[in-house]
Amino acid sequence: MEESPALYFTFGIIADIQYADIANGFNYTKTRMRYYRNSLALLKGAIGGWAEERRKPEFILQLGDLIDGFNARDKRSEISLQKVLTEIEKLDVQFHHVWGNHEFYNFSRKFLLGSKLNTKPLADMMDDLTVSSPSSDCHEDSFYGYHFSPFNKFRFLLIDTYDLSAIGRGKPSVKYEISLKLLKEKNPNEDLNSPTGLKEPQYVQFNGGVSGDQLTWINRVLTSSDEKQEKVIVVGHLPIHPEATDTICLAWNYQEILSLLQSHSCVLAYLAGHDHDGGYCADIFGIHHVTFKGVIETPPESQAYGTMYVYEDKMVLKGQGHVLDRTLHYRETRTQTAQ
Ligand SMILES: Nc1ncnc2c1ncn2[C@@H]1O[C@H](COP(=O)(O)OP(=O)(O)O)[C@@H](O)[C@H]1O
Hints:
By secondary structure, the protein is an alpha/beta fold. It has helices at 38-52, 70-73, 77-88, 101-106, 109-113, 129-132, 174-186, 212-228, 254-262, and strands at 7-14, 25-26, 33-34, 59-62, 94-97, 146-151, 154-158, 231-235, 267-272, 279-282, 288-291, 304-311, 314-321, 326-329. The protein contains nine helices and 14 strands.
């Protein structure tokens, strides 16, 4: 009989909870119902599910948009954040938080850095300090990114897909000025959230991109992981592959981010949220791009979270409710590089 491969560790994933204590409503295109209030009940269900798993998850990835922008309108941002964090803290497992557009509708970067949504203190230090620390957090143009290794030869790299953005940064940020200029060049619409007539429909205000300084840092981290023969799972709010999402949800400069990841043989997968319908593709280099379904558009009787089982030879996603099961085999050629 063949021996079954060893289970190394497991981790949970949940995306786009977008909690608000308001009645259900439709998305912008009126195609999907959003269950703002019930999203908290689904989060509680996910927490209960993870708590009962036989093998306790090592950590949970929260892929961004934890509370909805409507909280800012209703001046309930901090109350709603606290309500959600209270549920999260009932699970005796560490969350790693990614920041999405709804974080910036509710909070400034300065507030986020001082909040429990900043999980960067959980970052691993590497020998080379330039790999460990991307930039000073106090600087108005710093980005929110870090990496950690929960298991020998595995690393998770959290990136900031709103580093270049017209939301979340204000004056005197140089990145804000650059981002607004770029957005207006690419999107001549009066409403910068509208993709009408755009050749590159991802250039809308509710998306963002990754700056040159962050790309340089990502490259350093991945080069170090290539050398150590680690397997890296990259995590961000915005998807970066057009076959894994509706193009309106892509990061502004997704091509640059994608080709950078593809140039490193250590990269196994890219996990994202933002597109509530979810999506998946394996790219030409065998990198798995998984976009997770959003809790906010999941009906009360269903669910939308998953647990990844990481084995010696593959990762197996066990989805709950609308999140599908998937087996993600590791890339075969570990020396392949992008053309
Ligand atoms: N096609 C569109 N045209 C104009 N504005 C849009 C369009 N789609 C979304 N928006 C606006 O952009 C903002 C973010 O959209 P939303 O669908 O709420 O994002 P998310 O999926 O992150 O919740 C909202 O203010 C929304 O009204």
